[in-house]
Amino acid sequence: MAENENRTPETFRLFSSSASNVSSGFGFFDTPESPVPPPPPSVEVLSSEASSSVKFNVEPVNFDGLTLLKGRVSTREVFALSNSDLVPGKYEGGLKLWEGSLDLVKALRSEVGNEHLTLTGKRVLELGCGHGLPGIFACLEGAAAVHFQDFNAEVLKCLTIPNVNANLQKKIQNSKTGVTDSEAATEVRFFAGDWSEIDKLLPYVRDSKKELDCSTENCSVDGYDTILMAETVYSVTVFQRLYELIKKCMSYPHGVVYMAAKKHYFGVGGGTRQFLSMVEKDGLMAYSLVSEVTDGSSNVREVWKLSFK
Question: Are 152 and 192 in contact (CB under 8 A)?
Fold first, then answer.
């Protein structure tokens, strides 16, 4: 089980059930009973907008030789909420450190080590980033651009941006030769908003017109080379807009998605297998299992890789 040696990652807990019955356009989903509030407007959050008023306690997260830094902030202080991981339409759990985020970092390390993945010089997007540890790992691997997206601007200001700054500063301090040209050129940006609208802000969304003109094997179109996401498929109500966003943002034909999540999210209907069933029905992408985490007593966790057929 991948976990912080200092702190146990949070387990999934949903206190409001209003989102569990919202239809997302697929026949096997339930009919809505109560609507979710409209999402906040999509905005880019600048690094300079990092919060200075919320208490930010830095903690190490250890991955068998790799140590990343993460902050701990109070949900009550940021959102005036207590003992709640998710409030549909208001707070999507970004302040918690989810197990899938740790699983994804471990899987990415393995993929890079086995030369199944390269992040150096690539454009990377982390969806539903929260703490942003997978995206931070991509930064440290020399990605050309890493863009972090979360539903809540407050999460980016109070947690993600400080986490990114802490880890990049640590890398600079530990480097005897200073920052290399490739590291200095890394483009780090932050975007807040709902998956149904955030593509209007993201810089590397695919150009559908260019794709229609792309008829040769060596032809490629804009998009992100690697999309990372952890614990994003917790509810069937999010599947459609998440998958549509992926298709808009994933570079064709060589882009990949790494998805870490639980096999089943009991009580909210989501999980990797439900999501992959939708992907298979769509017929556009192939998928393969990268890793599985199971201890025989808790929920099975998985990391999957998706790519265009």
Answer: yes
Residue 10 covered by a domain: no
Number of domains in the chain: 1
* N-terminal to C-terminal alpha carbon distance within the chain: 31
The burial of 289, by beta-carbon neighbours within 10 Å (0-12 exposed, 13-18 middle, 19 or more buried), is given as exposed
Kindly give the residue spans of alpha helices, DSSP state H, lying in the chain: 75-79, 99-113, 133-140, 153-155, 161-174, 181-184, 208-212, 239-249, 272-282
pLDDT of res. 171: 86
Q: Per the domain annotation, does 2 fall within a domain?
A: no
CATH of the domain at 61: 3.40.50.150
In percent, how much of the chain has pLDDT > 90?
A: 61
**Domain of 82?**
18-308
Cβ contact 150:173 at 8 Å: no
pTM for the full predicted model: 0.83
pLDDT tens per residue across span 236-286: 999 999 999 999 999 999 999 999 999 999 877 899 999 999 999 999 999
- Report strand pairing: 43-45 vs 57-63: unpaired
